[in-house]
Amino acid sequence: MQQLQEINYQDARVLTTKQLSAAFDTTDKTVTRNFQRNNERYEIGKHYFALTGEDLKQFKATRQDDATLKFVSTLYLWTEHGAWLHAKSLNNDRAWEAYRMLIDNYYSIAKRHSVLRGPDNMGHALSEQVIYQIESRLDALEEQIKQVTLPAREQKRLRNAVGERVYQLTRKEPGARPALFRALHRSIRERYDVESYRDVKRHQLLDALNFVANWGGEAIETRSKANSG
To answer: Which ranges carry the KilA-N DNA-binding domain (predicted)?
Structure first.
C-alpha cells in the first residue's frame, strides 16, 4: 500500500474516495456504487462526511495541489467506520488485508498522537480512544449478527409456515399446491435475495413469517399456469 497523505477533518482521520479505492485496489466507481447500494447503513458524521458549498471550498483551499479535487461538487471523506463498511461490501481477502493495514498504519496513528499530546489531555484522550474502540467492536458485532442465517429450528418454522399458507390457499384447488409451493419459495428468494429459504437472515425471520402469512398466491399462481397449459 502506498504512503497515504494524511487528512484530518473534525478531529477525525479520514480518506477521500480516491484514497480509499486505491487502498482497496478497486475503482472510485465501485466504492461509490457500494455506498449507493447500502447508504441506509452509513451515518453521516460517523461513517463519512459529505462536503459541499463553503465547507468544500475551505477544504480545497487547504489542498490546492490536489488536481483531483478541482471539479468535485461533493466530496466524501471516509472514517474508520466507513472504511469497515466498504471492506465488508467488497468482502475479499485483499480488501480485509488493506483494511487491517489502514487501521494499523493510518487511522490508529491519529489516535496514538492524541494520547501523546500531554498529561493534561491524556486522560480525556484515553477515554475517547476506549469509547471509540468499543463502538467499533459493537458495530462489527452488530454487522456480524445481521449476517447470521436461520438455525435448523427456525428453518423448520419458516418451512412449516410456507406449508400452512399453501394449504390455506388451495383448500379448493389441491392440484395447484405444487405450483404454489414453487411460487412462494421463489418469492422468498427474491424478497431476501437468497438462493434458498435456509439463507434468510435470522433477524429477518419475523418479517419472513409475516410475508408468508400474507402472501396472496398470486391469483393461485395464475390459476396454476392456466391449468397447466
So the answer is: 7-89
For the chain, the distance separating the N- and C-terminal CA atoms, rounded to the nearest angstrom, is 61
Number of Cβ within 10 Å of residue 154's Cβ equals 16
CB–CB of 84/136 below 8 Å?
yes
Give the CA distances from residue 200 to residues 49, 70, 179, 206, 209, in Å, rounded to whole numbers and listed in that order. Answer: 33, 45, 22, 11, 11
Helix (H, G, I), strand (E, B) or coil at 12: strand
What span, in angstroms and rounded, lies between the C-alpha atoms of 204 and 145? 11
Residue 163 has pLDDT above 80, yes or no: yes
Locate 177 and state its grid cell: 399446491
What distance in Å separates the CA atoms of residue 55 and residue 74, rounded to the nearest whole number? 10
Question: Which regions of 38-174 does DSSP assign to beta strands (E)?
Answer: 48-51, 75-78
Residue 86, all three cell numbers: 466498504
Task: Please answer whether residues 201 and 192 qualify as being in contact, where contact means their C-beta atoms are separated by less than 8 angstroms.
Answer: yes
Q: For CA atoms 77, 81, 82, 84, give the dihedral sign.
A: positive
Helix (H, G, I), strand (E, B) or coil at 100: helix
List, in order, residues 6 or more apart from 58 with CB less than 8 Å away.
Answer: none
Minimal CA–CA distance to 48: which of 73, 71, 16? 16
Residues 78 and 48: their CA atoms lie apart, in Å, by: 4
The packing angle between helices 80-90 and 119-146, to 10°, is 30
Q: Quote the mean pLDDT of the chain.
A: 81
